[in-house]
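Structure tokens
________________
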Amino acid sequence: MNKSPGRFRLNSLRSRLMLLVLLAITPIAIVTVLGGLREREAAIRATEDNLKRLTALAAANEAQSIDRARQILVDLASVPDLMGDTAGCNALLANVLDRNELYVNFGLIQLNGDVSCSAVPMVHPVNLGDRSHFKRAVAERRFIAGDYIFGRVIRRHTINLTYPVTDRDGKVVAVVFAAMDLAGLDTFVNDISLPAGSILETADASGKLISRRPDPERWFGKRVPAPLFAAMRGPHDSARVIQGEDGVERLHAFARVGPPTLSDYTVTIGVPTETITRVAREAQLMSLLGLGLTTILALLAAWLAGDKLIVRRVRKLMTVARRIAAGELDARTGIGSNSEEIGRLAAALDEMAEHLQQKEAQRSLAERELRAADQRKDEFLAMLAHELRNPLAPISTGAHLLKLLHSDNAQITQTCAIIARQVEHMTSLVDDLLDVSRVTRGLVTLSTQILDLRKVVDDAAEQIRPLMLARRHKVVLDMPPEPASVKGDHKRLVQVVANLLGNATKYTPEGGHITLHLAQQADAWVIDVTDDGIGMDARLVERVFDLFTQAERTPDRSQGGLGLGLALARSLVELHGGSVGAMSAGPGLGSTFTVRLPCFAQEAPAAPVASPLAGSASAVGPLRILVVDDNLDAAHTLSLFLRASGHTVEMVYCALDAIDVAAVFKPQVCLLDIGLPDIDGNELARRLRALPDMENATLIAATGYGRQQDREQARQAGFDHYLVKPLNTLQLGDLLAQASPQ
């Protein structure tokens, strides 16, 4: 009968042994923990009862001392000589002081507060009219135990005990007082034995200490902590745990010193909770140690009993599993298959290893094929770009040459503009295709600096302006007056904005409206490109930034594309730490594309002002230029363009001829193709640099290869500049202007 695999089944030795250990230890552990808790609670209850008795005893001892002082004052108040002459009064009080060693002074206070006589001679007159115990004795006409005082005459820590002196009519005529030494008050509780770390404190009505053990002298007159004082003033029916100023938690019990008519003092005794629970904790610790030892012995027995039957075989399974995880898919357990768990597990592990070995072989083959296909794809894209750019180069250069030679012929000029525009569009398609390939493989690196987004928008609008003019779009650039500082790659951000503007132009009918709004929102600069074009439905909005996604073509769309621009824009913005989004109210209602880029606190540097002659080939002085290209059309059209610009040009079609010509011609500028038939352009650049008088020549790569690795190889070979076909004549003019002698 098959059992459910999800249930826990006790059909193996190890599971049974471990379960027996758990069943044996669990009750003992529960009993040990509960017993320890009960012992701790019992210790606290016993200590609380003892504390209450000790505190009551200490309070009774102090109350007895204060009541004795009350009786002495009552007797003094009835002595007639107390109100007699000062000398007789002083002698009487001095005699009383000699017979009561716990006191430091006796005296008589007149109703105006002056001390008229004293057992201790007074050097200066003393007035105690401000003392609360004096005022209360007069007002309440009874015995008053005052708060802590540091004596003005005797300079000792004391409490003053006062009693009113009345005449025959019961009118208060004076107050007799006794100053009790606090050290003497403390002696009445010396016979109380307390555990280490405990404290015994007596506080007056204001919370000042008048008695303390241990170290009483250091604490006289100091206030007890606020939590302890609050407990002293509250009900005293139960003990409380309070943390002292020394950080020690103590269990405190409280008791009043006599009835309210005798004093307002409160006694407390606090015993550290750690001391109270120490015995219970030590007993519980011993129980836990015994439990741990029992557990160890039980586990040891289970291990010894199951070692041969279970552990060794499990170790073998673990070793084989680790070998398989490390890639040794030919590893096998060698354990015979049988009905018990380990045998079935070994068989399953061997079967898994065999299947993994087969799948790994298939995966390795597929991976090799995929890598080969990826490499072929990269090579194909690079070759495709090269082969597309090669025919575009002579077309573009020829158009610029015709425009240069026939600038007075409107039809030729218009035709040249059309050719140049279409060549630029085809070049843009090739660049987008290669850029998407590089971005998706993570090969794009950014050259970041602090930028002003307003300059980025201006440069992007300048790129798209011919297309906007051709379709008669009304374009508004709404930008803030202050710099919009971000950190990024100027060229790539221009590419992003140009793609968004170009997309809006493609899908907006002639005469439509396009608005670019740049504003700061929180910690980001936001660019919104809004058009009133064909719009999008909700499904297209969700995937508009995916590769090769396009809206339905309409008859008025004169500009096509491959569906790469928006995907490339999103990838470049995300590389800058930003985000993109799109929204549309629906078909025919226009669209809005949004770019968010993080703000940069530092102000962007002012954009350099271009020279009026920048990019103008006519402003360049005549140069000796060597053109090397195996594409005859490209070489001829470029040579004709350069000669029309006033330069002296030599043209060759292979690298070896170029070396011979350069040795005689001594060119100032060399325009070299990279893909030459005999030796490539990089090797040619190295050999040209080695010729006499050529170390300062300007070497410009003019090639159809645009990959980053191609640019890096050209730089290492000695090229000063790198241009991708078809050549931008304005950029070429700038480079020639730099090479022209001043």
